[in-house]
Amino acid sequence: MHTFSETGSVPAFLAKLWRLVEDSETNDLISWSTDGRSFIIQNQAQFAKELLPLNYKHNNMASFIRQLNMYGFHKITSIDNGGLRFDKDEMEFTHPCFQKDHPYLLEHIKRKIATSKQQQLQAQQQAEDKSALKLEAVSRVLSEVKNMRGRQDTLDSRFQTMKQENEALWREIAILRQKHHKQQQIVNKVRRSRRRRSS
């Protein structure tokens, strides 16, 4: 079993978690994933009932998960691992500094510090500023779309007018052709009658 320096630089919660995951005797309830980059809790109810009280003096699964979140662990969903995990009672957690055979990384895992009121206000202000910028961008895009629609409508109107003018021209050409054809027939008749007279 891999160990790490007991200098107090690793919080008790993480030290206990490491020992739990490393312990081959508890593999049926908690163990490393195949690649060793995450750990899997096999049976939540049994894990909470049997292992949590021995290590954390409580059997509250929600409290344990909340602690994991505080230390920056992320739950891996079935979507994250390609939909391979369908067992609802199975949970998988990962942290870049919680890896099999790398106990020295544990001291880099820090608990999240609760943000102060000022930081919360700043974060809220930044979120509002971003939201305002987004609204401004959306408004600008909508305005551009409206202008483009206006130009498109103008072009459509011009095209329709040209189409109508073109149709009118073709009708005039057809009428002129008919007139020309009739005139040609008259000219041909006159020529034939003159030839008869002269002969």
UniProtKB/TrEMBL annotation:
This protein's UniProt keywords: DNA-binding, Nucleus, Transcription, Transcription regulation
SUPFAM superfamilies membership: Winged helix' DNA-binding domain (SSF46785)
Listed InterPro entries: HSF_DNA-bd, WH-like_DNA-bd_sf, WH_DNA-bd_sf
GO molecular function, one term: sequence-specific DNA binding
Keyword Transcription in annotation: yes
Family: Belongs to the HSF family.
Protein name, as recorded: HSF-type DNA-binding domain-containing protein
Species per Swiss-Prot/TrEMBL record: Anopheles melas
